[in-house]
């Protein structure tokens, strides 16, 4: 018995006659529905986590790798000369699209969050910052450092990789963890449905025996069980996914200074991703119940 | 239609049946008798593919049971009606649905067979009880419902295991009459029973052969019964 999408459709449409041969079961049905719902709810969050950290990693590595900063620390009378020298070097460096010294106002704005607006920043010996924007090919940071060391002794090149790498690494790790969680959630759902299906098959041993005796084929018997569990998982997962989506939508939206946590959620077409959860749950239930039914039936003649 | 050739069967320990050879001819009427535990039920199970012989060959409608797939067995069972001593039904469905179950599982619409079903229930005298649930039936009613279920597909062979085990004499006569009628319609009948009175009662109505299991062997019993 192989998996076949057409068969799955036929299963959902159903055969009311076949459905009646297995007695209705109230309690286990509700439990299956509940577990599928909870798992789908959790899957929505794991999915949100994966997609959000994926976005974050992409943004960080993209924005940060496009720019670098050159810091010039020198006695105040030499700063202007060294800045001019550094800009000359940068202008002739392959891979640098543009380089620009930050104005005093821009530098003050950068420092304001730390020192407050009233601090007389002008009187402090602040290094001059030069913003470097790379072109698509990028430049060779090592070569640039050597040239700067020779011509501009007070220059320190910060290409951001030092603190970018761990952040991007953490975000991608988080993304992997999210996908792993989704995998585990579906595996746990399969395990629970298998247990529930086995319980149902055991409870209906007499029904199965009678059906075999009167000439029912395995597929007919299996279908009666598989259909139920598939529909329950589908319904439960649908409810759970809807609840999860509502919960994610109600999270505070991402803000400019929001950092990571408030960014948890879906963006644009990513909202469509959770819709995959209910059908996937149905497929998992279908395969799990079918395997359980086959194992049970093989034990009978 | 059902052939056993040098068949032996053992349950783990010793052999219960050995070197049994028998071919059921169409339209024949057999009684199977022997002491309790002699292997009557096992013999019947070999006849409808519920057990595979430990050695020898059992053939159902020409196919060796050993080589049949599970679906083949299911299809063969549609041509063999079985009545168990402890009849089992789907307890949540009314009698009429239980009797029609073989039609349901074989995908034949019960609507077309509705008249057929009604006739059958009348024949076994269960018209009044058609909507009852199986646990509400008496022993005799259960046996008759089982017989109706066994014949609804119009099988070639009917195997009955102690069909009169749990019912009184009058009811056993009614069941016997039903089975004799089926035999007159051309069905092959095999009844396992240790009720010699039943066998004697049948002999005046039908050409029945009596098989006896003793010492693991199948014997054709003499005319002295």
From TrEMBL, chain A:
Domain of life: Bacteria
GO cellular component entries: cell division site; membrane
Transmembrane residue ranges: 31-52, 177-201, 233-251, 271-293
Keyword line: Cell cycle, Cell division, Membrane, Transmembrane, Transmembrane helix
GO biological process per UniProt: cell division
InterPro entries linked: FtsX
Protein name: Cell division protein FtsX
Source organism per UniProt: Marimonas arenosa
From TrEMBL, chain B:
Top-level taxonomic group: Bacteria
RNA-binding keyword on record: no
Alphabetical UniProt keywords: ATP-binding, Nucleotide-binding
SUPFAM superfamilies linked to this entry: P-loop containing nucleoside triphosphate hydrolases (SSF52540)
Entries under InterPro entries matching the protein: AAA+_ATPase, ABC_transporter-like_ATP-bd, ABC_transporter-like_CS, ABC_transpr_LolD-like, P-loop_NTPase
Signal peptide: none
GO cellular component, one term: plasma membrane
Span of domain ABC transporter: 2-221
Protein name, as recorded: ATP-binding cassette domain-containing protein
């Amino acid at each position: 018995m192989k998996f076949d999408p057409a068969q799955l459709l036929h299963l959902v449409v159903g055969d009311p006659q076949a459905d009646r041969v297995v007695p209705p079961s109230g309690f286990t049905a509700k439990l299956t529905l509940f577990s599928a719902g909870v798992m789908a709810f959790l899957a929505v969050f794991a999915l949100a986590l994966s997609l959000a950290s994926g976005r974050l990693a992409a943004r960080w590595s993209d924005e940060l790798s496009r720019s670098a900063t050159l810091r010039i620390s020198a006695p105040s009378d030499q700063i202007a000369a060294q800045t001019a020298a550094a800009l000359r070097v940068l202008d002739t460096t392959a891979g640098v699209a543009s380089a620009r010294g930050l104005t005093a106002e821009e530098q003050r704005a950068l420092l304001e969050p730390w020192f407050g607006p009233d601090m007389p920043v002008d009187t402090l010996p602040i290094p001059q910052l030069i913003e470097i924007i790379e072109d698509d090919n990028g430049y060779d940071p090592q070569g640039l450092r050597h040239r700067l060391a020779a011509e501009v002794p007070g220059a320190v090149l910060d290409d951001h990789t030092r603190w970018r790498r761990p952040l991007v690494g953490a975000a991608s790790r988080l993304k992997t963890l999210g996908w792993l969680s989704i995998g585990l959630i579906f595996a746990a759902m399969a395990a629970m449905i298998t247990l529930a299906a086995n319980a149902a098959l055991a409870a209906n041993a007499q029904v199965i025996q009678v059906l075999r005796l009167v000439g029912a084929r395995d597929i007919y018997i299996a279908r009666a069980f598989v259909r139920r569990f598939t529909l329950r998982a589908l319904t439960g997962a649908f409810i759970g996914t809807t609840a999860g989506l509502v919960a994610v939508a109600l999270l505070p939206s991402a803000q400019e200074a929001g950092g990571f946590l408030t960014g948890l959620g879906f963006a644009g077409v990513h909202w469509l991703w959770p819709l995959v959860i209910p059908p996937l749950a149905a497929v998992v239930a279908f395969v799990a119940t079918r395997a359980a039914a086959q194992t049970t039936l093989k034990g009978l003649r | 239609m059902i052939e056993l050739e040098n068949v032996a069967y053992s349950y783990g320990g010793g052999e219960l049946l050995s070197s049994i050879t028998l071919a059921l001819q169409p339209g024949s009427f057999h009684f199977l008798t022997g002491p309790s535990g002699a292997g009557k039920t096992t013999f019947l199970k070999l006849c409808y593919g519920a057990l595979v012989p430990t050695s020898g060959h059992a053939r159902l409608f020409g196919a060796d049971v050993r080589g049949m797939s599970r679906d083949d067995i299911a299809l063969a069972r549609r041509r063999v009606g079985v009545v168990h001593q402890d009849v089992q039904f789907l307890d949540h469905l009314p009698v009429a649905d239980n009797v029609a179950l073989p039609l349901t599982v074989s995908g034949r619409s019960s609507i077309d067979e509705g008249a057929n079903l009604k006739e059958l229930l009348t024949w076994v005298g269960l018209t009044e009880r058609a909507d009852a649930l199986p646990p509400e039936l008496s022993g005799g009613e259960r046996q008759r419902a089982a017989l109706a279920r066994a014949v609804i597909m119009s099988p070639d062979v009917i195997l009955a295991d102690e069909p009169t085990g749990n019912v009184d004499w009058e009811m056993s006569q009614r069941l016997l009459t039903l089975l004799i009628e089926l035999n007159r319609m051309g069905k092959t009948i095999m009844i396992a029973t240790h009720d010699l009175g039943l066998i004697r009662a049948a002999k005046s109505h039908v050409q029945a052969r009596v098989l006896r299991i003793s010492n693991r062997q199948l014997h054709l019993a003499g005319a002295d019964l």
